[in-house]
Amino acid sequence: MTPFQLFLSVFGVIFVAELPDKTALAALVLATRHRALPVFLGAAGALAVQSLIAVVAGQLLALLPARPVHVFAGALFLVSAVVMWRQKEDGDEAPAKDDQRAQSFGRVLWMVFTVVFIAEWGDLTQLATGALAARYQSPFVVFAAATLALWAVAGIAVVAGNRAGKLLDPNVTKRVAAVVFAGIGGALVVGWL
Fold first, then answer.
1. Of 51, 89, 119, 138, most Cβ neighbours within 10 A?
2. Cα dihedral sign, 102-108-111-116
C-alpha cells in the first residue's frame, strides 16, 4: 500500500467512525453555546494530542510479532463494530441557550480542549488509530490522516452546532462505521490486510 493509499484509507475509516461519536457531539453542543473558532481550536488541539498518544501506543504494539498484532487489531475492530452497532442513540435534547455573557476566547478554548481530551480517552477512533499505526508501520501517515479526519468531523460538528442544525443522521453514520469496522476487522483477522 502506498503512503497516499494508506492516508486515504486511514482518513476514511477514522472520519466515518468519528461522525456519530461523543466527541463530535460534544463539539456540536459546545458550539451552540460559544463562538465557533475557540471551540474548533480547542477540539482540534485535544484531538491532535489524542492521535499522537494513539500512534505512539500503536508503535509500541508494533514491536510485538506481526501476526498476533494483526489478529488483535482485527479483533479490536470487530469488537468496536459490535459496540457501535449496539450503542443506544443519545437523547435528542436540544441544549438550552446560554444567556450568560460570552466567555473569553482562551477560557472557551481550554474548556473545550479539556472536555474533548477527556471524552476521547479510550474512544473507538483512538483505539483504531493505535491499531492502524501498529499494523502499517507508518506513524506519520497514520497520525496525519487520523488527525485530519478528526479535525474534519470537529469542523462539521462546530459548523452544525454553531448554526444549530443537524447535518447528518447519527444512526446512519454509526451503522456505516460499524460495517466498515467489521470489514476491516475481519480482513485483519484472516490476513487480507
1. 51
2. positive
